[in-house]
Amino acid sequence: xxxxxxxxxxxxxxxxxxxxxxxxxxxxxxxxxxxxxxxxxxxxxxxxxxxxxxxxxxxxxxxxxxxxxxxxxxxxxxxxxxxxxxxxxxxxxxxxxxxxxxxxxxxxxxxxxxxxxxxxxxxxxxxxxxxxxxxxxxxxxxxxxxxxxxxxxxxxxxxxxxxxxxxxxxxxxxxxxxxxxxxxxxxxxxxxxxxxxxxxxxxxxxxxxxxxxxxxxxxxxxxxxxxxxxxxxxxxxxxxxxxxxxxxxxxxxxxxxxxxxxxxxxxxxxxxxxxxxxxxxxxxxxxxxxxxxxxxxxxxxxxxxxxxxxxxxxxxxxx
Length: 319
Description:
The chain folds into two domains: 4-224 and 296-318, P-loop containing nucleotide triphosphate hydrolases (Rossmann fold), CATH 3.40.50; 227-287. 54% of the residues lie in helices and 15% in strands. The chain contains 13 helices and eight strands. It has helices at 15-26, 43-47, 76-88, 92-100, 102-109, 111-127, 147-163, 167-180, 195-210, 230-235, 241-250, 256-285, 303-318; strands spanning 4-9, 32-37, 58-62, 68-73, 139-143, 185-191, 215-223, 291-295. Strands 3-4-2-5-1-6-7-8 form an eight-stranded mixed β-sheet, with helices on both faces. Helix 3 packs across helix 6, helix 6 (111-127) crosses helix 8 (167-180) and helix 7 (147-163) packs parallel to helix 9. 35% of the residues are buried.
């Protein structure tokens, strides 16, 4: 299984939730995962009901079997300071640049530089080894930008490597792209069974493939249960008021006449949704990628719900 798991998706599909659940799922059986946030929203801290993360790797959860989940909210400014120290040994000079506002200027005026720093920090965690020569983390999960920006975000190092022909910037960009375009990486896309998210997912997959970035799985999030079987869905048409009224009466439901219209309207709405979801599943199937479904948590998302989604993902990835 790929060591860098990148999770993207259209806004509102729950990609951060899925990324967190995936980190928990991969950490089972005593493994260590690092959950990386790159958008500065501190969404992961909210999911795990903890305070905002500083710029350091911090343990946030224990998975079934004793595995551990660490988290890191990457700050582009701090990542640039790390970069300056690593390649140019600037140290105090780098901090002086920060005071002068040069670093903020660099990461704001050149968004590509910011993306290089964010992806570079994640890839460094993927490659890092301890003193025994073992990887520091079994898996790194990145809560990445939305689908509309994911290809440019991941591919920016290729552009930088082309601009800087020699030197540490060129070498760093090439090293990052070797990770991102290798079997070590998988880019997963989160969607809902709705037309716009599914279309954006299809577009994202096409762009990722064109950029030769490794596409992983499609994860359909917040799938609502089907309350009517296939025959019942097909039968919700025409005037069925009398049949429904008789059935309610036989069941001993009082005031059944008043219930007929709202029940039929609700059934018709459900049938329409089921049909639309069936169409979107067909579109996803045509994309030719493994597709997993996660249930809608009707009671809302808390830590218990996050662990439930992790169990679902674990079941999908081990069968």
